[in-house]
Amino acid sequence: MIALIFWIIGILTILVQTTLLQELPSWFGRPDFLFILLIFISYRFAWIPGIFLVFSLSWIMNVIADIYLGYYPLVCLLLFTIAKTLHHKTPLKESSYQIPLLGTAYFTGQIILTVICSFAHNQPITGWQWGQQMENTILLMIIAIPMFALYNKLLQYLIKRQMRKKNSRRTPRKPSRLRKSSQ
């Protein structure tokens, strides 16, 4: 149930990112809101639902907006695995590494995508600008702070709602005693 709701949020994110954000001026930047959601999923979901969400959402994004099919889901799954492993194994407080790990993963993912595309299509690496990629990474990290807070609130609400639903099913209701009216 929770995974389905986040899948729907991912679809809406893809729609907004591929339609509304394309109308903004180029100086505003093109933040990858889906990537923020995918990294959040790697922090909060178990392996199987996380892999399903990351693969299906990145594949949909790849089909809708990408030229080279298959690379974006591959890189997203690789970064999901790395982020999930680092999140599981680290002794640090979660809030201290979430945003820097997101920025590092995004920047690394852009490098991997550029290198893979250049080798796969026998073209030299063109269009890579360190300054532009750093700006995009910093913009994404800034936008990720309120997005993570929003996703956390939504996840906590859904978990509490699910727990209340389970508890109401488990506790049998006591039969109400009918009072006989004395006449």
User: Could you name the CATH topology?
Assistant: Arp2/3 complex 21 kDa subunit ARPC3
Instruction: Indicate the structural class.
Output: mainly alpha
Order of helices and strands: HHHHHH
CATH domain class name = Mainly Alpha
How far the N terminus sits from the C terminus, by CA atoms, comes to 52 Å
Return residue spans where pLDDT drops below 50 for at least 5 consecutive residues. none
Q: What is the strand content?
A: under 5%
- Overall body shape: globular
CATH architecture: Orthogonal Bundle
Instruction: Let me know the number of strands.
Output: 0
Q: Evaluate the radius of gyration.
A: 22 Å
Estimate percent helicity: over 70%
Number of helices: 6
Largest sheet composition = none
How many separate domains? 1
Instruction: Let me know the average pLDDT.
Output: 83
Account of the 3D structure:
The chain has 183 residues and is mainly alpha-helical. It has a single domain, classed as Arp2/3 complex 21 kDa subunit ARPC3 (Orthogonal Bundle). The protein contains 6 helices and no strands. Helix 4 runs antiparallel to helix 5 and helix 5 crosses helix 6. The longest helix is centred in the C-terminal third of the chain and has 41 residues. The chain is globular, with a radius of gyration of 22 Å.
